[in-house]
Every structure is written in structure tokens, then in C-alpha cells.
Amino acid sequence: MALVLGINAVFHDPAAALVVNGETVAAAEEERFSRRKHGKVPVPFSTWELPEQAARWCLDDAGVSAADLDAVAYSYDPDLPAPLGDIIEADWEGLRTLFARRAPLFLRSALPGLDPQIVRHVPHHVAHAASACLASPFPSSAVLVLDGRGERGSFLAGHDRDGDLTVLATRDLPHSLGLVYEELTDHLGYRRSSDEYKVMALAAYGRPRHLDRFRQLVRSDGEGTFVTEPVDWLAFAPRGSGDGSLDPAHADLASTVQVRLQEVLLELAIWIHERTGEPTLTLAGGVALNCVANTYLYEHGPFEDVWVQPAAGDAGTALGAALKVARDLGDTIRPMTTAALGRSWPDDELASWLRSANVGFERPPDIAEAVAQLLADDGVVAWFQGRSEFGPRALGHRSLLAHPGRAENLERLNDVKGREQFRPVAPMVLLERAKDLFEGGPVPSPFMLFTHRVREEWLDRIPAVVHVDGTARIQTIDATEAPLVHRCISAFERRTGLPVVVNTSLNTAGRPMVDDPRDALECFGSAPVDALAIGPYLVRRASVFGP
Fold first, then answer.
1. Mean per-residue pLDDT for 210-221?
2. For the purposes of burial, counting CB atoms within 10 Å of the CB of 24, is it exposed (0-12), middle (13-18) or buried (19 or more)?
3. pLDDT in tens, 510-534
């Protein structure tokens, strides 16, 4: 039985995860502590930030020390350097590799008592793969990992059988589906390795007018991998400013790249299905956060099940590296049953935070019923409950909730958060009612990683959560796994007839998701929301700031 700490620290989204006797007990991104989104600060090589606070919290949460660890799994292998391009790139890769080699010493400084000899390097894409296949509820699966880059490559196709991964295909740089999407994101004026989800939303407003050309530029090779040619983006659309405007040329380009990505992913999925014969596909890597593509694979691919690890981006490699090393040390890995792996506070501490902030609050007989009434009255509620989520999606622990039946609530919430108006918000729906309202994607869908078509009879009933293409990125709520949220939505349904509430992340533009009570109070104080439901307590805006 082993105690393994996983670390991601070379690329963006530094994170830590703790696996004890094969069970994931804690995981968190460093941004939730540092308040620097994606772990980035405005200095050179900022993405090398060590997840010191996240790692210390994981250990504290489990009641162990660094000296108790059997291994530290670091999700980058310095013996797999990337192919070098120009001098700047060579210098960058040399420093990145040097950082990874010296990680044991850096970690010893950050975690007193740690023996640097127990640090193990796990290849980036192997860590991604482990975060999918080992964390999934399936004993065996085909595995696809796609992202921008990791060491020398951008892709891994594998076959997991009872925890043993066989690598079937890889793809070296510069060929990368993830980098194509990142380059498009940058060309449209948004932040690469950060704002790709905005491009996915924008794609629904366009037509894939350039598809024939992109089928030449981005193509599968028939051997389980792909080729990506350099793209002259200016040949398709002028450079964007990222100001949130809806330029038809940009929307068409985004639509083109999104559709071509889906086509190539399907070809890769067909290839790996033929090689493995598995009924299940597990996915990880930043591309696996593209819920539109995931649904395309689910609907059109050969697999009965498609499972995506909720922290599929680089943060998830901390988890995958820890699971891989725990498996190597002989532990039986238990499936990941929840993304609620972060910090939480007992009720008395939450009350102490509220008193210290000198805000008036109440403790209603049932917080779920009280919030349901506020939502039915068209209030916007900041919802802070239980352990925070691991990964980029708000899954009913750090959320902004609203009424889905008011079409104007989409614009209202985007204004609250300071977001682009073309961005959709998502519905949380009672699991037992999901198929009555939605079709096309898998149910259950607890991690908000697929899109579903809204049934015609519900389009006008829940307009706030319907994207321009008639889809919604749903999260299903199981009464057993999320009893408080389920009770709240059930109470809302009794009042409105709608088994759905709007759910978007509890943060404002450019800021990480709220994590601790201080973050919640700061967000509540700065954003025009009507109430904060924090644990069993309710803070009404009118009682704090006046009518």
C-alpha cells in the first residue's frame, strides 16, 4: 500500500494530487491558492510555477507529511526532450528540461522532510493516459490522449487492460491537433492554452467554409496518427482583437477548425477501435475538454462508452502520474467517483468568516429550499458548498445559479462575469429527468464534458441554457452523489415546473474559480448577484448593501 503525491509543474495549470492505497483522496490546481489563473504570472517561464500550496494542502488534508510519502510522481520526463527549432525554442526547452531534472531539489525545498530520491518522472502523455484509463470505472479501454504538446510529442493512442497500458501509436512535434487549435485561438485575439473554449463556443455561430482546404492541412495518416501542416491564418481571416465581437469571418474559421478536428478524431477513434476491439474509449489531454468533439465521437464513433477525465487538461497529469506510480508500486486503483477533491470548511468556520467580514447572514431551515425560492423569483445566487472541484468545470460546488426559463439571464450572467456575449451557460438537470429534456449525448453526464441537443418541446422553456445551435452542455445530478444540489433543483422544479437550473462557474473574467470563503466573499462583494449560499448560511445582498 502506497502514499503517492502527483505533481504537474512544467507546463500551465500546475496542480497536485494525492493517492492513498490506490484511492484519489485530494487534488487541486495551484491557481485556487495563488489566484493566478492557469498558474501564470507576468514573468518569463512563469508556467514553471511549482504547486507548493496545492501539494502542502493535499498532504495536510490527508493528515500526512512529506516524510510519509512513498513516491512523488512528476508528470514530465526530462529524458524525452522536444525536437529543437530556433535558438529561442532551444533555450526554452533546455531550461524546461533542466527544471524537470532539478524538480527533486525544488520539491525538497517546498516540502520539508521530502526525500528527493523518491521522485519519479512519468512521461507527460503516459500521465494523461493514466488519468483517463486508471481513473475511469472501466477495467479496460482504448485510450486517446491529445493536447498541444508534452516533451517531444502531442498524441498517444493506447490500450489499457486491467491497469496495464500498451502504447500503440504516438505523434512527435511539430504535428499537433492541440497546437492548431491554440494557434487559431491566438489568431482570433484570445489567450492560447487558456481560451480555446471560447473558440469552441464561437464555432457554433459560423459555417465551415474552409473545410476542403483544412482537410489538406490537417489529416489522419491511416496509421493511427495525423499530419498537421503549417497554417497561414491570414489567408482565411484577419487577425482578431479578442474583444468579444462576433465577426462572421472569425466564426466561419472557428467552425471550420472545429469540424475538421472532429473528423480527424473520429478517424483516430475508428483506427484504435479496430486495433483493440474495446467497447469503451477513455480520453484525456486538453483536446478532451472540447465537449462538442467528445459528443461527436460518442454519436458517430464505434464505441459504446466514451469517458473523459474531468480534469483532462494538464492539471490532470498530476493525478495520472500519481495513479501510474501507485499502480507500479502494486496498489489496486479505485475509480474516480467525483471531481469534488478540493478544499472545504466546516459550518462553524464558515460562520466565523462571515462574522469577520461583518456581513449579515441567516441560517434558513433548509438552504436548498431557500435558494430554490430565490431562483424561482429570478435571483442570481452564488453557491459555495462542500469540496471544490478539480478541473475547469463548475460542478455544483462553486457555481453561479440562475433561472433557465428567462432568456435574458444569459446576457445577465455574462455581464455579471464580464464575459463575451456569445458564450453559453450550462444547465444542471436532475438525472432522472435528463432524457426527457435532452438527447444525443451520454446520460449520466456528471462532469459537463459533452453537449446534448435540447428537445424541441423544451427549447422555449429553458432558453437561457440553449446555445445558438440548439445544444446545451449538461451536468446530470444524481440524488445519491449530490443530494444537496438535487434537493435544490427538485425544490425549484416544484415551484416552476423546470427540473433544471443555470450553472456557471463562480468567478469573474480572468480570475480563477472561487475556492475559499475569502474568495467567495470578494466575488459576492464585487459582482451583482442577489445572494450567497455558503454552507448552510444565506447572505442576501440587500441585507449587506441595501436595496
1. 98
2. buried
3. 789 999 999 999 999 988 999 999 9
Domain with CATH 3.30.420.40 in the chain: 3-126+316-328, 136-308
pLDDT averaged over every residue in the chain: 94
Task: Answer whether 0.90 is exceeded by the pTM.
Answer: yes
CA 58 to CA 116: how far, in whole Å?
Answer: 18
What's the rounded Cα separation, in Å, for the pair 516 and 320? 25
Beta carbons within 8 Å of 190's beta carbon, 6+ residues apart? 196, 198, 199, 240, 242
State the burial class of residue 271 (Cβ atoms within 10 Å of its Cβ: 0-12, 13-18, 19+): buried
The fold of 347-545 is DHBP synthase (3.90.870)
pLDDT in tens, 119-145: 999 999 999 999 999 999 999 999 999
Taking the C-alpha atoms of residue 290 and residue 207, their distance in angstroms, rounded to an integer, is 18
Would you call 365 helix, strand, or coil by DSSP? coil
CATH code, 3-126+316-328: 3.30.420.40
- DSSP H stretches of helix in 63-163: 87-101, 103-110, 124-133
Q: What are the tens digits of pLDDT across the range 277-308?
A: 999 999 999 999 999 999 999 999 999 999 99
Please tell me the distance from the alpha carbon of residue 393 to that of residue 484, in angstroms, as a whole number.
Answer: 18
Rounded CA separation 364/372 (Å):
12
Give me the residues paired with residue 260 across strands.
none
Q: Does domain 136-308 have CATH number 3.30.420.40?
A: yes
**Catalytic center residues:** 12
What sign does the CA torsion over 24, 29, 30, 35 have? negative
Which letter does DSSP use for residue 389 in this model? B
Q: Report residue 474 as a C-alpha cell.
A: 449538461
Closest by Cα among 187, 193, 189 to 11? 193
Cβ neighbour number for residue 461 with a 10 Å cutoff: 16
Q: Which amino acid belongs to residue 30? A: E
